[in-house]
Amino acid sequence: MIKGIIASVFSESTGREIEKAVGAFYKSLIELGIPEQTALKMAENYLSTFHQFWGDYEENWRW
Question: How far is Cα 63 from Cα 55, in angstroms, rounded to an integer?
């Protein structure tokens, strides 16, 4: 059961959803007038939370 949950969390479709979320976040920052470089850095930081979660998963949840 846990492997199924993890597989759904880290599926290809989930990756696409994360990509959309990061893109929408970046776009909204630009629309709010945030400078491009600042918005890019903020979007990179947002994306890094997903990477950090994945790294924590790999370190602590391997079966």
Answer: 15
Residue-wise pLDDT for 1-25, tens only, equals 555 655 655 677 878 888 999 999 9
User: DSSP secondary structure string, the chain?
Assistant: -HHHHHHHHTSHHHHHHHHHHHHHHHHHHHHTT--HHHHHHHHHHHHHHHHHHHHHHHHH---
- The token pair at 46 is 């947002």
Rounded Cα distance between 44 and 30, Å, is: 14
pTM over 0.70: no
Contacts of 16 (CB under 8 A, 6+ apart): none
Within the chain, what is the greatest distance between any pair of CA atoms?
A: 46
